[in-house]
Amino acid sequence: MTAPRTFAIKSFGCQMNVYDGERMAELLGAEGMTPAASGAEADVVVLNTCHIREKAAEKAYSEVGRLRREDGTRPVIALAGCVAQAEGAEAKRRSKAIDLVVGPQAYHRLPQMLREVEAGARPVDTDLPPLDKFAALPRRRRAGVSAFLSVQEGCDKFCTYCVVPYTRGAEVSRPLGDLLDEAAQLVEGGTRELTLLGQNVNAWEDGSETLATLIRRLAPLPGLERIRYTTSHPINMADDLIAAHAEVPELMPYLHLPVQAGSDRILKAMNRHHTAADYLAVIARVRAANPAIALSGDFIVGFPGETEEDFAATLQIVEQVGYASAFTFKYSARPGTPAATMGDQVPEAVKDERLQRLQALVMEQSRRFNASKVGTETRILVDRVGRKPGQMIGKSPWLQSVFVDTDAQIGDMIDVRLTAALPNSLAGELIARNSKQAA
Ligand code: 5AD
Ligand code: SF4
C-alpha cells in the first residue's frame, strides 16, 4: 500500500468534537495530506464519534460498514472520539475494518498511528493524559469567521446519567497563555467570533484567572468582535462571569445553562448539586445583569423514577424561565453510569409523550422570543451564503440565523432591521454595512 494522501473527517455530537475534528484536519494537513473531495474517495477516513446517547456504538459501527466501496476496497478507517474512548480495543474485535482506535485526548498521535497501520499494525490509544495533545498540535491558521476554542475539557461532576466523565476524563483547564496564543492565531487568520468550549466551561481556571477574566483578556484582540462560551453548569455561574455579561460588550447576550429537570427529587437523583430554586436564582442574577440575554438549556425527560408530577415540574421551570431555545432529550441509559442500573426506568412510550409536550412548549417559547425581535435593529455576523440568489445568512447576538438580501461578504458585521420571525430563524433587511455604532 502506498502512503495515504487524502483524508475525510466525519464529526458527530457536540461542538467539542467539531473543534477536535478541525484540529485533526490541521494535523493531517501538516503531514502533507489533503482533504478528499468526498468521504467515498478518501484514503483515510476518521470517524469522530459521540457516545452521549442511544445506540452510539452501533451507529459508529454501521458508519464503518458504509465505508466499504462497490469494488470491495475501503479506506483506512480511524475510529476516534468518545465511542473510541469507551470501546477501546473492543472496537477492533467488533469490526475488522477498523484500522486504528484513538481517544479524544490522544489524537495528536494520529499521524504516528497511521504510520503504524502502514506497517501492518492496528494501534489503539485511549490514554487520557491531560493537555498533552495541545502542545503537539500545529498552530492555528485559517479557521472560520466563527471558530471554537477548547478551553476546558472533561468533567468531575458525575451527573448520574452522563458518560462524559468516563470518555473525556477529569476536568482540566488549559493554561491562560496557551489560550491567548491560540485565540491570537485564530483572529489573525480571520476569526471574528470565538466560542470558548468546555464540558464545564464556566469552571475554567488558571491560578486566580477565571472564565470572566479570560473573556476580559480576549475582548480587546483587534478584529475579534464577539465572544461566546458553552456549556456551563449552574453551580459554577460565578458573580464575575455574570458581571461580564453586563460589562463586556463583546460578550454576546446568550447563555446556555442546562438545568436538565425541574423536580428537586430528580435533580438529586441526577447528582446535579442544585435545586430548581437555586437555578432560578442564578437566572434572576443573570437577567439583572443583562435583561436582554437569551437563555438556552438542555432537558432530559424520562430519567429513572420520573413521575408525571416530576415532569410537570420540568414544564413549570421552562414556563418560569422563558427560553429563547432549548435542547430536549429522552433519557438514554448509558452503560457504566449509575442511572443505567437505577430501578423504575421509564417506559419508552411515556418518554415519547413527555418529550412531545416539552418540545411543544419550547417551540412556542422560541417562536415568542423570535417574534419579540421583529421590528428591532440589530447587528449580525455574516457567516454563510444563503440558498436564494443574493441572500446571505448571519448570526444575531442571540444566536438565531438571520436571512438578509445583501452583497455583504462572509465575515462582515452588518446592521439589519428584523422583519419577520420564522420558526427557527429571522428575516432582516440591510440598514448599514460595517457600521460602528453598538449593536
Ligand atoms: N440521556 C439523555 N440525554 C443526555 N444528556 C447527557 N447524557 C444523557 C443521557 N444519558 C444530555 C444532557 C446534556 C446534553 C449534552 O446531553 O441534557 O446537557
Ligand atoms: Fe458526545 Fe459528550 Fe463526547 Fe461530546 S463529549 S462527543 S457530547 S460523549
Automatic annotation (TrEMBL):
Chemical reaction(s) catalysed: N(6)-dimethylallyladenosine(37) in tRNA + (sulfur carrier)-SH + AH2 + 2 S-adenosyl-L-methionine = 2-methylsulfanyl-N(6)-dimethylallyladenosine(37) in tRNA + (sulfur carrier)-H + 5'-deoxyadenosine + L-methionine + A + S-adenosyl-L-homocysteine + 2 H(+)
Entry note: cofactor: Binds 2 [4Fe-4S] clusters. One cluster is coordinated with 3 cysteines and an exchangeable S-adenosyl-L-methionine.
UniProt subcellular location: Cytoplasm
Top class in the EC scheme: transferase
Domain TRAM span(s) in chain numbering: 371-432
NCBIfam families associated with the record: miaB-methiolase, MiaB/RimO family radical SAM methylthiotransferase
Protein name: tRNA-2-methylthio-N(6)-dimethylallyladenosine synthase
Organism from which the protein derives: Sphingomonas kaistensis
